Amino acid sequence: MTSGNWRPATLLARLPPRIRDEMTTLGAERRYRAGDVLIHEGGSTREMLLLLSGYVKVTMRNGTHSVLLAVRSAGDPVGDLAAMSGEPRSATVTACTPIVARFILPETLRTFLQRHPPAAGLISGLVSTRLSTANRRRVEVATRPMLDRLIGVLLDLIEVCGEEQADGSVELPSWFNQAELAALAGATSTDTVQRCLRTLRERGLIENGYRWVRVKDPDRLAAARVPPPWE
């Protein structure tokens, strides 16, 4: 964590302190309970929400089911694409935990970004990174073994929402289920994820049970994954 308890990859962690302090006062404060929907896929609202505490899931409808696309943490914006483009909401955002956020209207956001080009560049970079991540996962589904894909997902989740334990292990939150891990890894069924988790457990890399996964040593887990050619 950096000052302010923002995880290193988040927008607020990467902003200069003066700009960060101003951004966290924009708009109005909103509070949400776990399970509340902050943004609805296909909706016409245009505000951006800047997360000051908690975690959210980003999901998209796939037929009759919702598919998990990503997890966002305190320090990151959600809804920024619609706020800047004016297009309908591309995904649903749901609170995993109690949330405190700044509710920022598009005109307020535009004025702020015009005054602070570094913030504008970072937000544009976040959008590009998210698109690159989505493209990378599509390529991995077609070219990478399932076990390596799951290891990559677990390592990504450690960075976003893992909680380090006293023994150096890292535990993922209990609000994940295996269907969501399967969606992130591009698995066709939860049975495939269960088999991969069992393999990692037998190798002594993780411990897991109902709705929990603990990575015993993130470095060892990373070393167990065959790097893709583009890394």
Describe the overall structure.
By secondary structure, this protein is an alpha+beta fold. The chain contains 9 helices and 12 strands. It has helices at about 10-15, 15-25, 80-85, 105-115, 115-145, 145-160, 180-185, 190-200, 220-225, and strands at about 30, 35-40, 50-55, 55-60, 65-75, 75-80, 90-95, 100-105, 165, 170, 205-210, 210-215. The strands form 3 sheets. The protein has a 4-stranded antiparallel beta sheet with strand order 1-8-3-6. A hairpin with a 2-residue loop joins strand 11 (about 205-210) and strand 12 (about 210-215). The chain is globular, with a radius of gyration of 18 Å.
Give the helices and strands, then pairings.
Elements: H1 11-14, H2 17-23, E1 28-32, E2 37-39, E3 48-53, E4 55-62, E5 65-73, E6 77-78, H3 80-85, E7 92-95, E8 99-104, H4 106-115, H5 117-143, H6 146-161, E9 163-164, E10 170-171, H7 178-185, H8 190-202, E11 206-209, E12 212-215, H9 218-223
Helix pairs in contact: 4-5, 6-7, 7-8
